[in-house]
Amino acid sequence: MTGARTVSHDFEIVYAEQDVDAATVSFTGRASADGLGVVVTGDCPRCHGSTASEYRYGLPGTGTKGLWSKLTGTARTEPDPGSVTETLRQETYFCECGHPHPQLPGNAVFVGCGASWQVRSLIVEGAP
Amino acid sequence: MNGRDRRWAELARELEFSELPELRQRAEGWRAGLTGLSTLLAVLVVLKGRDDLAGLPTAARNTAMGLIAGAFVLLVIGSVLATRAAHGSPRDSDKQMLITGHALRQWTEKEVKGVSRTLRRAALCCLLGVLLAGGGVGVAWSTTEKAKDHLVRVGTPTGELCGELVRAGRGGYVVKVEEGGEGDAPRQVTLPARDVDSVAPVASCDAPG
Ligand SMILES: [Zn+2]
Ligand SMILES: [Zn+2]
């Protein structure tokens, strides 16, 4: 259950943008190495490669650092862990196994098999 | 829905690479907005500095100044709203969120509504401001007394009289004399020709000659 891979990464599976069911896969969210975001890891339900999606804290209007906070020196208000978990549960995830599967489009932002899914089981470290 | 979700997720991912240009753009927007405000202020100071308004009757002057002050306030509010709509409020910059595709999409939908609302208000403020400013200028213009020509200083045995020469002839001189009070109507004085010692054109009746 804790990420033990039962099926090996299928490198040959052809890139396809399709929704897959992720009911049997468990995902984990933890703070990114620099502490400025969250990385959600798990196994892709389609190609079974290990995938990691990183999301950063930021301000959609300004990029990731607040101009106002820079000017005034006020502390940025980080979202509480509960809302982070809620945000991560609502997200649609895309395969980022890192392996360029056959027919991967040249401009693809997410390098993987093209699969997308909603998480059913997600544990965010540090969240209640 | 898949393609659209993918696009939002891609946008969320790319957002971190546009950090600096976004910051600069926002700062630039506020700078431009504030420059516009300063220009507005300068225009107001120039208007206020002119003596035009001083020549108006009290009631008209107060009305005109009230309208122009109201216009200024509305235009300032409109400029701030427009700058906010175009570049976001600087206060929002404190609200951090985890930028996922879904969160970005929700934020954008909310922002679009907010920006349209703010823009509508800005447009309304600017429209009302221009109307008020036009009204103020109109009041000032329509009540400004035209500069008086034909001002003369008439010397009589009993003293001097200064005013607008209405006519002169066998019947004597008719001079329109302004009284001290601003609101008072000018008084027409008829001077028989035999009472007139001298008539001299003057530029103004203000300085006693
Ligand atoms: Zn995959
Ligand atoms: Zn893969």
What does this structure look like?
The complex is a heterodimer of chains A (128) and B (209). Chain A is α+β, with helices and mostly antiparallel strands and 128 residues long. Chain A has helices spanning 67-72, 81-90, and strands spanning 26-31, 37-43, 50-58, 92-94, 116-118, 121-124. Helices cover 12% and strands 25% of the residues of chain A. In chain A, β1 and β2 form a beta hairpin. Residues 63-69 of chain A have low confidence and may be disordered. Chain B is α+β, with helices and mostly antiparallel strands and 209 residues long. Chain B has two domains: 3-143; 151-201. Chain B has four helices and six strands, in the order αααβαβββββ. A five-stranded antiparallel beta sheet of chain B has the order 5-4-3-2-6, with no helix packed on it. The structure holds zinc ion (ZN) (2 copies). The site of one zinc ion has 9 residues of chain A, from loops.
Name the structural class of chain B.
alpha+beta
Portion in strands of chain A: 25-35%
Average pLDDT of chain B, to the nearest integer?
78
Quick one: overall form of chain B?
Answer: rod-shaped
Element-by-element helix/strand order of chain A: EEEHHEEE
Could you tell me the mean pLDDT of chain A? 83
Instruction: Quickly count the domains of chain A.
Output: 1
Biggest interface, and residues per chain? A-B, 37 and 38 residues
Report the sheet with the most strands of chain A, covering strand number, pairing sense and barrel closure: 4 strands, mixed
Which features does this protein show?
heterodimer; A: 128 residues; alpha+beta; 4-stranded mixed beta sheet; B: 209 residues; 2 domains; 5-stranded antiparallel beta sheet; 6 strands; 56% helix; binds zinc ion; transmembrane helix (chain B)
